[in-house]
Every structure is written in structure tokens, then in C-alpha cells.
Amino acid sequence: MAGIGTEERENQLLLANNTRHEKSIFEELTNAATTTSRVRTFSNSAASGTLSRSDTLDGSKAEDPALDPTSPRFDVYKWARMILRAADNANVKFRRASFSFKNLEVSGSRSAIYFQPNLASVFMIPFRLREYVTFGKRPNKKILDSFDGLIKSGEMLLVLGRPGSGCSTFLRTVAGISQKEMIENFKGEIVYNSEVDNHFPHLTVRQTLEFAAAVRTPRNRVIAVSRKDTIKRITAVVMAVCGLTRAQNTRVGNDFVRGVSGGERKRVSIAEMILARAPIGCWDNSTRGLDAATALKFIQTLRTSADVVGMTHAVAIYQASQAIYELFDKVIVLYEGREIYFGSTSAAKTYFEEMGWYCPPRLTTGDFLTTVTNHLTRKPRQGYEGRVPRSPVDFEKYWQASTEYKALQDEIVQHERETSSKASAAEFKASRRAVQARHMWSKSPYIVNIPMQLRICTKRAYQRLWNDKISTLTVVIGQIIMALVVGSVFFGTPNNTGSFFARGSTLFFGTLLSALIAVTEINNMYQQRPIVEKQASYA
After folding, report:
1. Which residue in 233, 258, 284, 223 sits closest to 534, CA to CA?
2. Element (H, E) at 45
3. Fewer C-beta neighbours within 10 Å, C or N terminus of the chain?
4. Alpha-carbon distance 210 to 215, whole Å?
5. Per-residue model confidence as pLDDT tens for the chain (539 residues)
6. 145: which strand partners?
7. Which residues are registered as beta bridge partners of 200?
8. Based on the number of CB atoms within 10 Å of its own CB, is 140 exposed (0-12), middle (13-18) or buried (19 or more)?
9. What distance, in Å, lies between the first and last C-alpha atoms of the chain?
10. For the packed helices 469-489 and 500-519, what is the interaxial angle rounded to 10 degrees?
């Protein structure tokens, strides 16, 4: 995120286990781990307790159609419970995490905060030198201002706000604070799914997802015996959940390469995130391009992962239906970079109605919360016309003076007190070490070792070449033609000193043509950079 820096006063991001009563699935489970840096405190831990369920799959068999991802009767919830039972029997523990943030501020600095409205403004730069010459003091533009919140393990947070209010910045900040600490210790534990879908266009859906599963397959597997079978099974399950089974042999494609539809490409991005198996996931407008039924199914899948495995999700949605809204536990409302509400989804509508805003009868709760931040569409209740807050600052002051804000502060303090055990840090590292491949450095942020990474990436490289036969054959045939042309020009050169110049020209043309053809790969390298960056973040 170029040009954006983070200012901290007491900013903390805590990745930790919490005690949460799961819906008929888990009993109490309490563990925490803390890793402290100079300016922030991180906590993250593996669940040391035993996973327990109130119902099991007694008598279920492998041939049950509900457990077959290729069957139309496949039941992901039933399959997940079967996996949990197998994990219990194998004593495999799932990492559960939560996070909190306090006084979170993000600001942009330097020339990135300046915009040129028109061509004439370029010539006005000499008259605005004060904006560029700061003598060491960089002007800052606040993007996020004084955010506080807490999301416990197994909870889902809905991020609401108009475009430009800071939803994407908030999710990126949560997924990357602090960058040094995250890369060294918690890489892959928090994953971020951007609004743009970046994939290798010539790979098929199945090949793309198998790569994502291969780099995140743990050593302590419970689905199958071999790593290869595990990758195939978990990929088949995720494709069934995301509705990609029929398109598994179709190329992903992009704006120039014909492939799956835009909605299916979005589902491929979602499937990649699911295969990352991270305790915390940040989803930036991931329902864009999906129809209402598919978007609801996607959120229901996140809800299932939160209830069954204890994953924590923060999802930004610009148009959330009532059915989608009711699947979330908490909601945060942003208004031009300011937090004006953070709390339960069931109490959010009442909070703003008591503030004095009117909610039409058929308006969904998510749209109502977003409408409150739009001065053109919001309407105050009768009798509250002169009493409701108007500007973002007024909304923020009202929120910070409310009883809900005070209750949130008390909850954060209690959370920090419960997750301050330094002894649990070793438990989390031991749990992470259990999923890593053998012969790996204990502090490595990756799941698979270097030889496995080379084998997986080499396989993907050959798949890309095979799926893009036209481009590959074009280069090969072009080289052959140019070799024949150059050879014909210097054919019959005598074997004496008079042919030195001709032989040197032959070598020069051969080297030059190969170099010029290699130049065409530069654009491909820049196009692949965002794909590699995304995959490296969850590898």
C-alpha cells in the first residue's frame, strides 16, 4: 500500500485464542499466546484443549453421498463434523485466534496524498512549494482515525461504509500489523483477499486450487494418508462448496484470455482463501460479481467455518442483504475514515434509531447503516431534526460518549488481561511446528520446505506452458524460422580468414534475436507480480 504509513499511539493487534461457546459444536476452549514487539503486542495461540461436539456421525461411512464432494447431495457441514471427529481421534489441534485493535490510526504522507485536478494545476506547482518542501516534516492525511474493536475466535465482523470511507484500508491494516512481526512469525495466519481477482490465466480452476492446497497442506493430516490424496480431496471439497466442480477443467482466464465467468473467477479467489486455512481471514468486497444466492452461500460457508473450526472473519460488503447481515456477529460502521459504531449486529439498528435516524420499513439493516453515512439519503426521525449528528466528527463524538463504547473498552481490557500469558506462545509455536514439513527451520513462516516448494512451482510452470501451447509454439517456430533465415544469408561461407566478419555476424544475429524475444517476457513478469505477492502472503 504505497504512500501509507501507520501511526500508533496505543495501537495493538492481538492474535489470540478466546473462550467462546460454539453453537452445539464446541465447548469452552481457552488458550492464548503473546508475542510482543516494540510498538504493538501480538497474541496467537493454538487450541490446547480437546475439540468436542454435541453430535457426531456415528455409523457414517465413506460411501455416504453426503460425504462425497462430487455428489449433488454433498453436505459440507456433515463432512466438516466427520473431519473434526477424525482430528479428535488423531489428536490434531486446530489453531483458533482472535484480534483486537485500540486507537488504530492510519495516515498517508508525502506526495501520494496530493492529486492534480487538471492540467493547469501542474503549472501551479511553483506557487505551492510549501506543500512539497516540508524541511523534514511530512504532511499527513488521516485515513483511519482512532479505531477500537475486538473480534473473538469464531466470530464474524461485517465492515460497512460507503466507497472511500476506509473499508479496504482497515482490512489491509488488520491483515498486516505489524509487517515485520507478521512476516517473521505469523505469515499465513492472517490472509487478505483483495477486491481484484489475480490468477494465472492459463491454469485451470483445479490446477489453481491444487497449487493453493499443496503449499498449505499440513504434515499432520487427517483427511487422507498421503499428501497427494489429501490435496485432491480437499480441493474437490472446496470446489463443491464454491460451486466450481463443473468448471474445474476450464481455464481461469482474465481480461485477455478466455476462461471462466467473472463470478466463477471471484469464487476461485474465495476458494484460494479457504484452502489457506488461516485462523483469520479479511475479505474485501468478496461478493462483487456474485449473484444474491451465491453471495449468501459464500457467507454461509464462512459462517460454517467460524462455527465448526473457530475461524475469525472480517468481511467488507457494500450491499448486504438481510439474510447475509444476520449471519454476522458484529458490525463496524465507517464514516469518512472514522468509526461511528462497533458492536453486535442485533443492536446496531436500535443504536442509530435511538440516535434519531429513521429506518424505512422495507430497508435492510445493512443498507440503513450505510445510508446513515450519506447526507443525501438519510432522514432523521420526527422531532430529531435538530438533534442528530451531522458530520463524521459529530458521529464519532456521539459514539465515544455512548454506553456501547464504554462496554467495548471494558471488553478489550478484559481480553488483554486474559491473553497476556507468555507461556502460551510456546504452545502456538509447537502447534505451528506440527503442521510444517520435516527438515524445516523452526522459525520459517512456510508450511512446506524448499524442495517441496521447488517441485510444486516447477509443476505449475509446466502446466502453464502446456495450457498455453499457442504462445509457446509461436516462440519456438519463430526461432526456427529466424535461424533458417540467418543461416541462409551466411550459407556457404568459406573456411578461411576472410569469413571472420560473416561468422561474427552470424553469432551476433543469433544472440540479438534471442535477446529481443526474451524482452517480451518483461511485461509478463510485471503482470505476474501481484499474483505471486498474493500467493506468497498465504503460503
Report:
1. 284
2. strand 45-46
3. N
4. 9
5. 333 444 343 344 433 333 333 333 333 322 323 332 222 332 333 333 333 333 333 344 446 777 778 777 787 777 877 777 777 676 666 677 788 888 888 887 655 455 556 677 777 777 776 666 655 555 567 888 889 999 988 899 999 999 888 898 999 888 876 666 666 666 777 888 888 888 999 999 999 999 999 988 887 777 667 888 888 888 988 888 888 888 999 999 988 889 998 888 888 988 888 888 888 889 988 888 788 888 888 888 888 888 877 889 999 998 889 999 999 999 999 999 999 999 999 999 999 999 999 999 889 999 999 999 998 889 999 888 888 999 999 999 999 999 999 999 999 998 888 776 665 566 666 667 777 777 777 677 788 888 888 999 999 999 998 998 888 888 888 888 888 888 887 777 777 777 777 778 888 888 888 888 877 778 778 888 888 888 877 76
6. 338
7. none
8. middle
9. 20
10. 160
| DSSP percent split of the chain into helix, strand, coil, nearest 5 | 45, 15, 40
CA quadruple 373, 295, 24, 188: dihedral sign? negative
Residue where the block lists cell 462448496: 241
Strands in 336-455 per DSSP E: 338-344
Q: HEC states along 172-225?
A: HHHHHCCHHHHHHHCECCEEEECCCCCCCCCCEHHHHHHHHHHCCCCCCCCCCC
Residue type, 113: I
Q: Give the β-pairing of 99-109 and 140-151.
A: antiparallel
Amino acid at 53: R
Amino acid at 80: A
Torsion sign, CA atoms 474, 480, 486, 489: negative
Look up residue 49 and give its three cell numbers. 484443549
Domain map (residue ranges) of the chain:
468-538
